[in-house]
Fold:
Amino acid sequence: MRKGFYLGLFIVLFQSNSFLNAQDSAKIFNLTANEFSDKINQFPNVPILDVRTPIEFAQGHIAKASNLDWNSLQFKKEIDSFDKFKPVFVYCLSGGRSSSAADFMRSIGFKQVYELSGGILNWREANLPLAPKHDEITFNPNELTKTQFDSLLISDKIVIIDFYAEWCGPCKRMKPFLDEISVEMANKVKVYRIDVDKNMDISNIMKITEIPTLLFYKNSKLILTQIGFIPKKDLIELIP
Structure:
């Protein structure tokens, strides 16, 4: 009887100790903004993952961060190619998505996943620097999924998607005034440019067969398609 009692007590103490050790370990990897910044400086060449949507990422992010949307279908596929034995830094807006991403990463074998507690909101509160905002987003090959494309459309402004190519003469002529419109009408319009050669999948999904093609969205709904070159004055007149 006494032997069973001590055995049971040992098991309870062992489990409690394991639980406390797990908590301590979690604290080590869940860092304040200043701790997160200091740790990045200790490991300058390891990945920093912003797991927010592309449109959130475009509005300001930590320098040298890469965007890998936790809610995209690509996340689990792409994260598996990372080195699981090297440190990885993860953050989102307030900590929820990065916590889920970090838990998943640890479950598949990542050894050092550092989370930014409170997300980029706490980073800003600590007056730490962000990379500049930019409304024009150039996507790398194969990075833009349909989920990411759809996230660009979530806005209370008119969203203009410009499908272009570097070799396209009319596209080059339109770029300067599209940039001007993104600044001059920033309170009303958002402009994104997508290179069709680097994003064939989404170009096919959106049935882009001619360039330049401008797609106009309001409340995530396509309201107008403009194919071919159009002068700035005429383009502005198309914006509702």
Summary: Confidence is low (pLDDT under 50) at residues 9-27, 134-138. Residues 2-29 form the longest helix (28 residues). The chain is about 45% helix and 20% strand. The longest strand covers residues 158-164.
